[in-house]
Amino acid sequence: MQMLVPYGYDPLPQALAEFIEAFNARELRFLSSDLLIHFGFEDEHSIDHAIIRAMQACISLKIPQSQHFRRIFIIRENGIDHIWKLSALGCYLTLVNEDPSHPLVARMQASLLMNLR
Description:
Elements: H1 14-24, E1 30-31, H2 32-39, H3 44-61, E2 69-76, E3 79-86, H4 88-96, H5 103-116
Antiparallel strand pairs: 1-3, 2-3
Helix pairs in contact: 3-4
């Protein structure tokens, strides 16, 4: 994954800073709320815990979290809520770190083990 990194210490013009941010976030194509709906997970708190575990995996692997996870805020009728934007790797790590009592998660974990044999 390629990233733009500004060179120097001068403050960047706002438009350029926003362009760099958008360029660096282009791989974050998935939303945690879509995982909830598409895969039928029970609640947003379980997906948040799975994301935290996935981020810890990135730390252990020395993979920059910012390339795979970004918290965004959404205004809803009852207030402001947060969801996550995820890269493909972030999405995969989140799914693998979800509750293993969910049939999809259990199948994914089992298939990983079967492929190691």
